[in-house]
């Protein structure tokens, strides 16, 4: 998250900076890094928002379906996430093993793709592969923090150049702004929705079934269907991405 080597800055505006690392000649986006300064949000609030799956369904307008499958340890679990991609691309989903670690004023959440026998790839979605994806939250005082989002994802397909550009210039900053607004509204929302339930902080609250590590295996990209979307052109119907005023109920 803190390394500059090999990264090219593509966006710097309103406290949000985006870098990309292109690893293939064809222009497929293999790594993206996005950092946002949050001057009026506590690090622990941002950490809660990233963990709270019920709240994510409220503020993350790209989510199609998301749920926790089971837990491995007090700070690791397996989960499912499906999301909308910009038209005309096919929508994606992923099964990940996620782990997290509070470190004083800082927090880390990381994940990578695994196979789970009960959740094989679906015909209506492209199974993507998270090679290494996650967040570094760094506290900057009582009510201030920064967040760095790092993603190395194989979206399974030769992505057209416009997707690479759009991801770094538009989608990543938009997602950060949306997350920021969600953080501002979270304390009030949480007071009305099971305020003391935070299993990511209090593992004894978790009701998830235990998953044995032997049930899982690493999801390698080359074992999945490769969808060539390199020739697709961007459409005007963009799933409402032009609006940045997404409400949180």
Automatic annotation (TrEMBL):
<dbReference type="InterPro" id="IPR041951">
    <property type="entry name" value="STARD10_START"/>
</dbReference>
<keyword id="KW-0963">Cytoplasm</keyword>
<dbReference type="GO" id="GO:0046581">
    <property type="term" value="C:intercellular canaliculus"/>
</dbReference>
<keyword id="KW-0007">Acetylation</keyword>
<dbReference type="GO" id="GO:0016020">
    <property type="term" value="C:membrane"/>
</dbReference>
<dbReference type="InterPro" id="IPR051213">
    <property type="entry name" value="START_lipid_transfer"/>
</dbReference>
<protein>
    <recommendedName>
        <fullName>START domain-containing protein 10</fullName>
    </recommendedName>
</protein>
<dbReference type="GO" id="GO:0008289">
    <property type="term" value="F:lipid binding"/>
</dbReference>
<keyword id="KW-0813">Transport</keyword>
<keyword id="KW-0472">Membrane</keyword>
<keyword id="KW-0966">Cell projection</keyword>
<dbReference type="GO" id="GO:0006869">
    <property type="term" value="P:lipid transport"/>
</dbReference>
<dbReference type="GO" id="GO:0005902">
    <property type="term" value="C:microvillus"/>
</dbReference>
<keyword id="KW-0446">Lipid-binding</keyword>
<dbReference type="GO" id="GO:0005829">
    <property type="term" value="C:cytosol"/>
</dbReference>
<dbReference type="InterPro" id="IPR023393">
    <property type="entry name" value="START-like_dom_sf"/>
</dbReference>
<dbReference type="InterPro" id="IPR002913">
    <property type="entry name" value="START_lipid-bd_dom"/>
</dbReference>
<keyword id="KW-0597">Phosphoprotein</keyword>
<dbReference type="Pfam" id="PF01852">
    <property type="entry name" value="START"/>
</dbReference>
<dbReference type="GO" id="GO:0031514">
    <property type="term" value="C:motile cilium"/>
</dbReference>
<keyword id="KW-0445">Lipid transport</keyword>
<keyword id="KW-0282">Flagellum</keyword>
<feature type="region of interest" description="Disordered">
    <location>
        <begin position="224"/>
        <end position="249"/>
    </location>
</feature>
<keyword id="KW-0969">Cilium</keyword>
<feature type="domain" description="START">
    <location>
        <begin position="1"/>
        <end position="188"/>
    </location>
</feature>
